[in-house]
Design goal:
The complex is a heterodimer.
Chain A (H helix, E strand, L loop, with lengths): L1 H20 L2 H21 L17 H31 L1 H6 L5 H24 L11 H28 L3 H21 L3 E2 L7 H12 L1 H13 L8 E2 L3 H24 L3
Antiparallel strand pairs in A: 1-2
Helix pairs in contact in A: 1-5, 2-3, 2-5, 3-5, 3-6, 3-7, 3-9, 5-6, 5-10, 6-9, 6-10, 7-8, 7-9, 9-10
Chain B lengths: L8 E12 L2 E12 L3 E5 L6 H8 L7 E6 L2 E2 L4 H7 E4 L11 H11 L4 H14 L15 H13 L5 E5 L7 H18 L2 E6 L2 H5 L3 E6 L2 E6 L1 H7 L4 E6 L2 H12 L4 E3 L2 E4 L5 H10 L4 E7 L3 H9 L3 H8 L1
Parallel strand pairs in B: 3-8, 3-9, 6-7, 7-8
Antiparallel strand pairs in B: 1-2, 1-4, 4-5, 9-10, 11-13, 11-14, 12-13
Classes of the chains: A mainly alpha, B alpha/beta.
């Protein structure tokens, strides 16, 4: 019984990888866009941006600040592609063949999501090679830690994409979701600008941003990546969760999204 | 165990009903499929056959009624049922980016077959279907007929007791269609596989062991194709004319024949002797554009039971 779940999941995951490498435009799409955005924004905003405690823009430039967010964006783009693949699987008919197989429904989710996660992490690692040029303390522990964060983050994002795609029947509907939900989620994760700390002088807008960002699960993924990559502290005027809290929220996000994904697949319609 | 020997009943459907919102797709449908038979569910588009297919293949939720497959309940034992079924969908369920072999290996994994068993079944199925030399080709490069064969090989890997096929002839040329039937007959005789297929093709239903005719979600006729046809009598006369009502009246008054009108045609489902027929032709010659006499077909059976043309109804019902 469990054997069949394992063989089904691994076969589905392997299929995702085979498909990915047979569609080279996907490789370019998932890593190209974040890379270009990173370079353009990073270089363009370098002079007007500062998060370091001293206020000196040279301590941490925007290219550096923006890099963890770029890594998470790579994960997110791959999750988006994984999402679209669910819609494709349905319209091409492949999905129905999977659904009539005598396998537990969670193994279907696990297979698709593991495949998507593997692709996402692979691309993030490619992106990370660029980071060798950045002033980061590379040691085995931090690299492994970063790897675990990327895997967990990718898993949660792919599950989220899976749930969204399951409910949609066309790629068109998906573009709306991407613009209204996924991109704002990423923009509010501290990937692009830090989270303002609340003070007595904070405006209503700042309060709203503060809370939206605090409630965004991606904030915790970005915060983990950032804290592992750069040990230097941000200024007090910005809010950042500690590593423990970040891990807790990230894992919780993963677990909740996986459970929801299994439940949606279980419904016959 | 029910009293009516479950070993002979592959699928038992009792008062099955299904609705999409307000639209009733199946109403109070009851039907038994016998083990080892090739059963055709015939109906125009929108008659409810795909809904029934989706219910049986465990994809759609059961709303009302009862379905059991070889003694397993559709709701409670869906995993057991999934193991017994081989499902061939109308739109192919193959991954077009993968090779034939990769698709088949994937299917073996989805049914938990060990490597040795998978290899043996794979060889067997691909040999039977004549696709051994295409194993390394990507599915997207195959013709419609070939991919249908791969699809069949895929669905037979786990040796299902029941093969469900949804409009299997769609997109196949006559030669490939004929190959499909010889394959199904082979499965029936060698493995005792029960075959349940949906079709909107009359000639396909004619080749089955038993046929059920579905119209607007209800079963209107059930039986062996030749029995259904002979029930209608030996001939069906169709008269194409300008004023059907007058012709019907005249047939009634002069020859005591009861005819009915269908889409501007007069239909006579009674045996008419050659003499009477020539009398009719002479006396109606002014009005009649065309008159034809034929052995009843399954289309006639459909018309007889529903009062609708098989094809015209298709467009109107959509």
């Amino acid at each position: 019984m469990n054997n069949i779940a394992v063989s089904a999941s691994s076969s589905l995951a392997r299929r995702e990888l085979i498909r990915f490498f047979r569609q080279p435009n996907r490789v370019i799409g998932a890593i190209g866009t974040p890379l270009v955005m990173w370079l353009l924004f990073g270089l363009g905003l370098e002079e007007s941006f500062s998060v370091s405690p001293s206020g000196e823009s040279h301590d941490e430039n925007f290219l550096q600040y923006y890099f963890p967010g770029t890594l998470v964006l790579v994960l997110m783009f791959t999750a988006i592609f994984a999402t679209i693949s669910v819609i494709e699987d349905r319209s091409e008919g492949f999905l129905q063949g999977v659904l009539v197989a005598p396998v537990p429904r969670w193994s279907i989710v696990l297979g698709k999501v593991t495949g998507g996660t593997a692709i996402a992490v692979l691309q993030a690692v490619l992106m990370l090679l660029i980071a060798i040029a950045l002033p980061m303390q590379w040691n085995l522990i931090s690299v492994l830690h970063l790897f675990c964060i990327l895997v967990t983050g990718a898993f949660g994002l792919t599950c989220l994409g899976f749930v969204l795609a399951w409910k949609l029947d066309s790629v068109h509907g998906f573009h709306a979701i991407m613009n209204l939900l996924l991109m704002p989620m990423w923009l509010l994760s501290g990937a692009f600008f830090p989270i303002p700390e609340l003070t007595a002088q904070s405006s209503v807008g700042q309060m709203m941003i503060h809370w939206l960002m605090k409630l965004d699960p991606l904030t915790y993924v970005v915060s983990l990546v950032r804290q592992v990559m750069y040990e230097s502290q941000q200024a007090d005027r910005f809010w950042q969760p500690d590593i423990g809290t970040s891990w807790f929220v990230t894992l919780l996000f993963c677990a909740v999204m996986f459970v929801i994904a299994c439940r949606v697949v279980k419904q016959r319609k | 165990m029910s009293s009516d020997s479950p070993s002979n009943t592959a699928v038992k459907i009792e008062s099955l009903a299904f609705a999409y919102g307000d639209r009733q797709a199946l109403c109070e449908l009851s039907l038994e499929i016998h083990s080892g038979e090739i059963f055709c569910l015939l109906g125009p588009n929108g008659s409810g056959k795909t809904t029934l297919f989706r219910l049986l293949s465990t994809l759609a939720p059961l709303q009302a009624g009862c379905v059991s497959v070889m003694g397993n309940d559709l709701v409670d034992d869906s995993d057991a049922i999934r193991r017994l079924l081989g499902v061939v969908f109308q739109s192919p369920s193959l991954d077009r980016k993968l090779t034939v072999l990769e698709n088949l290996r994937h299917q073996a994994a989805m049914y938990g077959l060990s490597k040795a068993v998978a290899t043996q079944r794979l060889n067997e199925a691909t040999r039977r279907l004549g696709i051994t030399d295409r194993l390394d080709d990507r599915v997207e490069t195959l013709s419609g007929g070939l991919s249908r064969r791969v699809e069949l090989a895929k669905c037979m890997l786990h040796n299902p007791s029941i093969l469900l096929l949804d409009e299997p002839s769609t997109g196949l040329d006559p030669a490939a269609r004929s190959d499909l039937w010889s394959y199904l007959r082979l499965l029936q005789s060698e493995l005792g596989t029960t075959v349940l297929m949906t079709t909107h093709l009359l000639e396909e239903a004619d080749r089955s062991d038993r046929v059920g005719i579905l119209h607007e979600g209800s079963l209107v006729a059930l039986g062996e194709p030749h029995v259904l046809r002979t029930e209608l009598g030996s001939d069906v006369v169709s008269i194409q004319c300008n004023n059907p009502t007058d012709v019907i009246d005249q047939l009634q008054s002069s020859w005591q024949l009861t005819a009915r009108e269908l889409d501007g045609m007069v239909r006579l489902e009674e045996s008419v002797s050659a003499e009477v027929l020539s009398e009719i032709m002479q006396s109606l010659s002014g009005h009649v554009k065309n008159i034809s006499v034929g052995r009843p077909t399954l289309e006639d059976v459909f018309i007889h039971h529903t009062g609708h043309q098989f094809w015209h109804d298709t467009e109107a019902g959509r």
